[in-house]
Amino acid sequence: MLCTNMWRAHPTSQVLTSVLWLGILLVLSFPAVATNHQQLLDSAFAQFDDNFTEHWSYTETLTTSDGITVGHYSPSRESPWQLMTIDGELPSTSEAKAYLKRKADEAEGGRNSRRDPAELVTPGTLQLINETDEHWTFSFVPHGEGDDAAVMEYLTGHLQISKAGGHLNFIDIRNEDSFRPRFGVRIHEFLSRFEFERKDDGDVLPVAFEFKIRLKAMGLMNVDEGVTGRYSDYRRVSVSP
Question: Considering only CA atoms, which of 22, 64, 17, 73 is closest in space to residue 228?
Fold first, then answer.
């Protein structure tokens, strides 16, 4: 509409009118953008298929204090996970069995605790904190239920939405100060971050994650654990019913 109005305006007799309308339209556009923040978020989350493991094979590279583990996942195999290397070396039979058991346990735990990513954002807390030509960055208050709620109230969330397609670039939840979610436990550091990319065929898929926690319990037990992961070599696969 703005371009149409300027095109129709006569270059000599209606310059002032065009400039006036330009200013009015720009001012009126700001509230409209602000009221659509939740709509942007809903659209971004809707583009991510949280059942992508049913349609894609990929390589997962995990880095922990114990080393670097590379595995391959394909839903077309009877046993979908396959351990490729540990610190660049071929795994032993026992290492491969332990890996498969761990992945099976993770899959079962994920099915039992799966949540819609949109539920991580407490309704009404989304705030635009930065905007560039490429993206919007928002802050939010993380939402949790049950035991998660005791931790989430001390954390700060950020997420970024790409302007080229409106998909999620990342979602990041972390603490700013140490806190005590319950008696005898102090968490000094908490970080959970996921990054996403749109593939050539339009699907939005996870490409990286990082998780870290550092805490002290009852003044005796210290926990300092972290893991980073990369997902690569995505291939769409057909799975027989």
Answer: 64
